[in-house]
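Support case: user asked for a sample of complex input and structure output to validate their parser. Sending the pair below.
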Amino acid sequence: MIDQLIKLIVSTGAPIVVGLDPMMKFIPEHIQKAAFEEKGETLEGAAEAVWLYNKEIIDHIYDLIPAVKPQIAMYEQFGIPGLAAFQRTVNYCKEKGLIVIGDIKRGDIGSTSAAYAAAHLGKVQVGANVYAGFGEDFVTVNPYFGIDGVQPFIDVCKEEKKGLFLLVKTSNPSSGEFQDRLIDGRPLYEHVGEKVAAWGEQMMGTEGYSYVGAVVGATYPEQGRVLRKLMPYSFILVPGYGAQGASGKDLVQFFDAQGLGAIVNSSRGIIAAYQNEKYQKFGAEHFAEASRQAVIDMREDIDSALGEAGKD
Amino acid sequence: MIDQLIKLIVSTGAPIVVGLDPMMKFIPEHIQKAAFEEKGETLEGAAEAVWLYNKEIIDHIYDLIPAVKPQIAMYEQFGIPGLAAFQRTVNYCKEKGLIVIGDIKRGDIGSTSAAYAAAHLGKVQVGANVYAGFGEDFVTVNPYFGIDGVQPFIDVCKEEKKGLFLLVKTSNPSSGEFQDRLIDGRPLYEHVGEKVAAWGEQMMGTEGYSYVGAVVGATYPEQGRVLRKLMPYSFILVPGYGAQGASGKDLVQFFDAQGLGAIVNSSRGIIAAYQNEKYQKFGAEHFAEASRQAVIDMREDIDSALGEAGKD
């Protein structure tokens, strides 16, 4: 799956993943109204609004990008109907040829980790039958437990040819509270990065990168530079672009010399672009066209930053 | 809710939480058969088996214990029907007067953490209506993000009078890989414990303990002793009893001088007791009676260990 991701990044020229994180305040009035008219102001109605919103955005951007990253929390808050909308979104994106990174940040141990891995990447046995879980292609995983928490995910990935992104250095302001603490003179996130690199070596794709990648926040470009070197075979998923403050020039450190090795996430910057002054002219009715333009602009921003850095 | 938990621990004399982590291999044949006959060998059938199994166990033990801890991964692996069984289990346990600790180990930042908090402890707005989420009383949370990830949970807990257990030192063998690394001469888990204690001070119950508790594995009793002192107001949720190897005498360090301050989890040791040689005589048909006996024995084990330590 990492090979497929790289292939799609090259063919689209867009090392971009769009975060499908549908908060109610992003969903235009007319979509909410249509959904509530059909299903009421219920959890089902909210889930329908989420689905209609996602579908229109996907239809407008799927040809431009390699991957999407739905954040499951945004669906989980609407209970069972919300999770059904998550499932529907995953299925629809896969139909459209997109790679789906489930942003689930699960992390536990042993049989529990194995159950999460089965739920999102693998299969589950019921009597004589076998069922696929939610069916993402990659998931994000929290490394706090050490290898006990990660190995069950790796095992399922090996079997299913799927992949992981392990949290190394997160994009939030307080990420340093634990992640930056010095251990033997080096921050915790470097130690985590080293482990991620080592764990990934047991699972290499054919394009020079491992199925086991890392999450490193765009808001920490200097750390990105260090981690890029420390994890030469780990693809880096980079959140924090746009709304969280990072721009194209902050990103070049995350890429390798060929302009590969990283994929940059933007969520509200794309899906709620119509609420941004820059794209206001599209209006709420044409929110998905605003999203399309925002993807094009983001691609251009990254492309020119990589060009200036001689990485293209 | 922490006050209510303490009250129930005192009234039952059982600082015990039963982990409702229904793996298929634990569910007796006759239950699986009944479920599959009704719903087929489908995800719905698996969810029905899980529900029937849980219900019978709950019916046999609810009067002995203060709380249950369903592990959501075990439900999530059966997709939407599995999560519906999780919901049904939470609701049923609450009807029975049990406190429900959702073992979800979620952790993310900002609006995403807020969405998880709404999903499991809080409420969500849809149009003019407000809906409760899955409705647990406590959830477990991963601290890797620092306070950005925890504060949204604390905010919801304040509003809803609910609580948290933050991962500090987990029970698995590789938990030391990152958690034991020395920072300024002390292991990471002590630094995390100190933060948990500090975060908890903003949210004290009336019984001397905070709404913000900690998870510390029973498999690390020495660390339990240190952390008990470091987090004097943090209730400790202690996994690792029984199947993971710890026994009553390993637990006394986690309790305060009054024999309070900790609640010990057992999952398969209780719910799959009938598969244990010690309780084989009950047979699969009477699996829930075996669970009841296992709870009684566990209470006795902890009680006598606390008695020997002069903590009762």
